[in-house]
């Protein structure tokens, strides 16, 4: 009786795995016999090698470095772009402090924000300025 319930549990787990996976990926794992085989296959495919992770992180660093606010771009959209790249970098193991992001934003704003950036740098300690405070200050002047 126990073997039957274990077999049923394994079959149910396999079924759940197959239901949760996108159809385009499903075709590549249909031949797997168990949920553990599916997990191992997915892990190999999507976790990547350490060399690949380093390459991804290097590409993200470059993307972060060259990001500049475009003329006519809203503060909210620019913050979203910066934070998307910064969060991807953090996810890939980069130890990025908020002060680095704050400084990047201040240095990469369009010229129309020059006076605001100067005002922020003179009146606040950039090293302790939070991203929320910076965004709020820039939104007020947008």
Tell me what you see in this structure.
The protein has 142 residues and is mostly helical. The chain has 2 domains: 2-47, no CATH class; 50-141. The chain is built from 8 helices and no strands. The model has no long low-confidence stretch (mean pLDDT 87).
Brief rundown of the structure:
This protein is an all-alpha fold. The chain has helices spanning 2-20, 23-29, 35-47, 50-66, 75-91, 98-107, 114-123, 131-141. The protein folds into 2 domains: 2-47, no CATH class; 50-141.
Q: Roughly how much helix do the residues carry, as a percent range?
A: over 70%
Class computed from helices, strands and strand pairing: mainly alpha
| Total of helices | 8
Share in β-strands: under 5%
What's the main sheet like? none
Whole-Å distance between the termini? 70 Å
State the total count of DSSP E strands: 0
- Shape designation: elongated
Low-confidence stretches: none
Number of domains: 2
Q: Give, in order, the helices and strands.
A: HHHHHHHH
- What number is the mean pLDDT? 87
Q: Any idea what the radius of gyration is?
A: 23 Å
